[in-house]
Amino acid sequence: MNRIQKLFCEPKEKLIPFITAGYPTLDSTVDLVCGMAEAGANMIEIGIPFSDPQADGPVIQASSQQALDNGMTLNKIFEQVTQIRERTDVPLALMGYYNPILKMGHETFLNNCISSGVDGLILPDLPLEEAEPFCALAKSKDISPILLVAPNTPDERIKKISELAGDLIYAVSILGITGNDLASKDALAKYLNRVRENSVTPFVVGFGISSREDVIWFNEYSDGAVVGSAIIKNMDEGPNPVETTKQLIEVLKGRK
Amino acid sequence: MKNKFKDYNLPDDRGHFEKFGGKFVPESLIPALEELEQYYAKAKTDKSFQIELNNLLTHYSGRETALYFASQISEELGFKVWLKREDLNHTGAHKINNALGQILLARRMGKKRIIAETGAGQHGVATATVAALFGLDCIVYMGEEDIRRQKLNVFRMNLLGAEVRPVSSGSMTLKDATNEAIRDWVTNVESTYYLIGSTVGPHPYPMLVRDFQSVIGKEAKKQFENQSENALPDRLVACIGGGSNAMGLFYPFIKDDVKIVGVEAAGKGLESGEHAATLTKGDFGVLHGAASTLLQNEDGQVTLPHSISAGLDYPGIGPEHSYLNETGRVQYFSATDQEALDAFQWLSEKEGILPALESAHALAYLRQENNGIKQGENVIVCLSGRGDKDVHTVAEALGIEL
Ligand SMILES: Cc1ncc(COP(=O)(O)O)c(C=O)c1O
User: Which of A124, A181, B149, B156 is the most exposed place for a label (fewest CB within 10 A)?
Assistant: First the structure.
């Protein structure tokens, strides 16, 4: 069992923060991830910066561009994940657009995931239609492909997506990009119940989640809450990114 | 080669041209793409759709466009050049062919809000035009750099009632405008029709844009047969941005024994690192929803293209062109900024036609030394648009203040 599979066997509340690798500085990622794990994050998503992040709003776009300007690369991410793994056992997922992975090659990329200690992958521009070869290879290497569903995904398709993913899926809360506002709680509850009924795997929810109340609410309707833009925005506001971020994680976890 | 293309019938059901094409998009766009596929399949066999489109092409856009035998340059070159005059379309470029087709689809789908990306502004103008015609809201995403070099087209779009939204991310050109249009579409997918301007993007766009542009090649084929002594031309030439004017000319000839040449933008030179010669210099990758060929670095980050022509300033290319390149059915050449500028002036002086800077790349190929054209050949060149929009850029390049 990989760390993600183990985590989702446990029925506890889950907070899953997202940060962009290489942001705000090239070498900030290791301390940020370890700090967030210490502060109570249950799993962490590390964004692979990309030149053309189509599913992202302005906050994550800007962080992605800054990370690239800082010199972040896939190989450096794997080096940093290796360092992270010396300090924490928190489940880790990489989130990234498909092209850099394709360029590295599926096999090399997945082998790097294994040797550095990545547990799962979220690829927002690799839908069911195109995902099969990659998912099969990832699963054969015990890496969890975390496929996405959206509010307009039909029931039958949710089921198929979760079957291909196998361990975990990610429900995008809204029709939109990261950092957008949330829909009404009624509409969300209806949608998440639909995902619950049709998915054969546990699922987490992300996009637009920013408060402790949100985290509690989404953990009632799903198996975990992903917080992205709010973490990055908050990081930009404090003098020390690691301390500022740890404090926010503690707030989001209800420890403060 | 001939046999392989005799039964040419791509893309397949999944939108693939073998390893190229497909749908690499966020999940929320999948239902929209499927809906579009269904409506398009219906429209294809629906007589009333075809009649409506043909009426608009004829009476609104002014088709058919002339196939003009350019005697002055033919004499100079020693082979026969036929210009397919897409510049004579309403709004001044081939882009309207596709915009008319897609706006009719949008109407059948009941969409009230139209979005588009634009580089040179020609597609933005075409989209704003058809949106005005049908009373639909229109938002055009355009990079700030392109807004600067295509001021005239920005004002035209405003006059047509469209909102031009400046895009300041990345290279501030077509690639970034496309990203922003996709973000808008993801967010407003239920109300909005995304009117893509070239044979790029996820399936079914490369196919349907090609089909709507194929009117270029169908007309040219018939006109050439009527106007010349030969049944078929020897060679076709078109410039390549995303590849729509080229696919439009090429597709009706793909099964025929005709040489086909696409011309990419070599910018400041192929070795300068500042160009948009995707097939010549790029490699396999995924951008804007399709697997195709890309200008990218060793880490898979898309690199900034350069061309003096905003319509060619794009780091990707339509998936079908990647396929036609790989199979050798189409040969791809490139022309530099300087060669295009020279060709722009050359055609203006010799034939009295100001070509778009995009189209000037196709013309520049005619004058290249190793183009492989034999004396006496019949060559059809797609004159994809008129050059009025480019006079500021040309004046600037020539150091003339207007
Ligand atoms: C006149 C003209 N020709 C060519 C192009 C390039 O596009 P495509 O390769 O899709 O024909 C453009 C794009 O804006 C254009 O305006």
Answer: A181
Domain total of chain A: 1
Three-state DSSP string of chain A: CCHHHHHCCCCCCCEEEEEECCCCCCCCHHHHHHHHHHHCCCCEEEECCCCCCCCCCHHHHHHHHHHHHCCCCHHHHHHHHHHHHHHCCCCEEEECCHHHHHHHCHHHHHHHHHHHCCCEEECCCCCHHHHHHHHHHHHHCCCEECEEECCCCCHHHHHHHHHHHCCCEEEECCCCCCCCCCCCHHHHHHHHHHHHHHCCCCEEEECCCCCHHHHHHHHHHCCCEEECHHHHHHHHHCCCHHHHHHHHHHHHCCCC
CB contact at 8 A, B384 and B239: yes
Write the DSSP symbol of residue B258.
Answer: -
Q: Is A56 a catalytic residue?
A: yes
Catalytic residue status for B2: no
Comparing C-alpha atoms, which of A18, A17, A19, A25 is closest to residue A66?
A25
Q: Does A4 fall in a domain?
A: no
> In this structure, what CATH number is given to the domain that contains residue A42?
3.20.20.70
CB of B201 shorter than 6 A to ligand 1: no
Residue (of B163, B175, B180, B251) closest to B213 by Cα position: B251
Q: What is the CA radius of gyration of chain A?
A: 17
- Residue A139 counted as domain residue: yes
Burial class of residue A102, CB neighbours in 10 A (0-12, 13-18, 19+): buried
pLDDT at residue B3 in the model: 63
How far apart (Å, rounded) are the C-alpha atoms in residues B314 and B198?
A: 11
| Inter-chain residue contact B170 with A68, CB threshold 8 Å | no
State both tokens at B192: 């909005």
Contact B15, B207 (CB under 8 A): yes
pTM over 0.95: yes
Residue pLDDT, tens place only, B74-99: 999 999 999 999 999 999 999 999 99
Instruction: Decide if A98 is inside a domain.
Output: yes
> Rounded distance, CA B282 to CA A200, Å?
41
- Phi first, then psi: what are they for A91, rounded to 5°? -60, 140
Q: What is the pLDDT of residue A27?
A: 96
- DSSP structure class, residue B55: H
Spans in chain B with pLDDT lower than 70? 1-3
As for the ipTM of the complex, it is 0.96
User: Structural domain of residue A84, as residue ranges?
Assistant: 13-252
Instruction: Answer whether A127 sits within 8 Å of B289, measured CB to CB.
Output: no
Does the pLDDT of residue A39 top 70, yes or no? yes
Q: pLDDT value at position A179?
A: 81
Which of A99, A129, A172 is the closest to B286 by Cβ?
A99
Catalytic residue among B86, B117, B180, B358: B117
